[in-house]
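Hey, quick one: can you model this chain's 3D structure?
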Amino acid sequence: MDTHNKKISMPAHIFKTLSKYFVAPSPWDNPKLRRSRKEESHITDHRKPFPPEKEREMFEAVKPGSPLKLLNNPEIEVLLYILRYTGQRQKDCVLLSWNKVNMDRRRIWVTQEKTGKDVSIPMAQELHEALKKAEAWRANDKVLPKTAARYILQAQDGTDTGVNLVNKQLLNVVKHVGLEPSVTVAGRSKKMTIYGVHSFRHGFASHCAETGVPRAVCASILGADATIIDTYYVHIGEEAQEKAILSISGKIGGTTAQERIERALAIIDKLKSKSAAILEVEKALRQ
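Sure thing. Here's the predicted structure for all 287 residues.
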């Protein structure tokens, strides 16, 4: 079966040939018409949040005395707290500056490198305690000075080698708790990542959705487009829609008010003796 891009290339080739005889821009040259490689192969990103028990194990794995040995381990421990409790991307967390952290107001400000969006995040108690540890090694404006310096390392050809070095450390933590970061997928030459640093971001969105945090509030913290948030809020939205329909039809929790009254009266009828208060309730229900 022909792919979308291959079909687009046919009229594009015709216009390219005709352009020799007239001067006019081809509408088929618009890059927005083309699909990405993932869309063409019908393979999407299946990044998952960390399972709660594995996430707890990851934090245990980076504590002092753990058998897992990492370079700049104390900073990596704090980095995990920043990732988990802010929901921000790896680069924004690794390069976080003290001038964006207010310990007294317990708030963090981030200008996202990828989107340019400014987000303001309240500081969880766990993160506040972790940042107190980081204050002890404060050497410059970076919260994680050694890890930040390593992160921006570049090879002679300009390749960002430091990014991979730090990412590999975090993946070692993932593997240490028994999670396989990548899986083989049919029709794809490279393995697909399902657990990685971005899983903290997915976990943040998942926790917000499950605990009833409004979608707009979650978006204001993640500074994300609709894709990652919709992944976790779509089923929450469906449940809310069902409740809305039930409320319009006079039902809450699947039962009407009259059905709940009749159930209460049935329970009262089974009582061998009734106090004055119960008799008053029964009278009110039967009116």
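One thing worth noting: Strands lie at 101-102, 107-111, 118-122, 182-183, 192-193, 251-252, 255-256.
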